[in-house]
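User: Could you check the structure of this?
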Amino acid sequence: MSSQPPPIPLFATEKHDNSFAKNASTACLAAPLLALGLGMGFQRVGANLSGPNLRVAALAVGGVSCAIVGVGLILGILAILLMKPGGRAGIVFKSLGGMVIIGLLAAIAVPNFVRARSIALARVEAVKEIRQATKDAQRDAAAGSTNSEIAMASVDRFQHALADAATKTTGEDSVIMAASQKYLQKVKAVEADYQNAYRELTAARVLATSNLVDRSQITDRQAAVQKFLLCNEALSNFVSHGRQTYEADLAAAHVSKASIDATLKGYDLTAKPQLALVAQIRGQDARMGQAMLSVLAVLQSDWGHWQYSTTAPHLVFENRESLDRYNECLADIKAAGSEQAVSQRKLVALIQQTPTP
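Assistant: Sure, the predicted structure tokens are below.
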């Protein structure tokens, strides 16, 4: 057995464990890349989302991405501070590389955040303007005004609010505002046709007989009544199918099904309770128009057998049946007018009670 001691090593080494620093630097480099991948994946998935679901998902993905990047940044700093001799170059390269990418992401994200914040504030302001325009329209109705100029002014203000909102919002919100404005233009057009026909009917004084001296005048008055009835029918049909028209405009603008349903829910909240009363008012207009045509038909068929009395504001008929028919039509016009006034008051009261969406 040898008694010699073991050979003495020529030099001594110290073991340096850099496993934490290496793993931390790798995580620092991977964190921003993972956040980028998460963002690109959300863009694809988010295309199928809309409304509140899209906002909640965006907040969730944004929060997770920020957390990943924040942890990666902390690990990169710790990797550099805690690294030991041996393999430092790789640790520094990965850590600094990750930090540079994180810095670039921050440089991109901060302006985008500021822009998104500005857009969000603009959207809130646009919604406020739309609500104010809605309240203005309700105020005009609450005043009980049937003045067509006031009504059209309310429509103009609401249309302006929608146009302004379309420029202040982005994405699907902007598309919905633009589609709503298009629908409102249709409402305005059919309402304008009705108002013009109503003004022409009023100016024609179709029931006046003191100035009825030629039979051809009856034909002109009948034309004015027919035009009014056609415009009233067009307005009635538009109102009764308004929901379908609005839905078609939204679909044509490529609004998602979920957003269309949410938008129509607000439409139903305000418009649906009013439809029955609006239908009554349009029906009462039609009833008065038909009665006017009947009056004119009596005057035309009995031309030369009636005359306007200068001693009293009424007609003198030679034929008793014609007189009875004439008075019956006038009574029908008066009754329909009284019923319409009641329906209009009910509609005004209903509009006052309707909550602003």
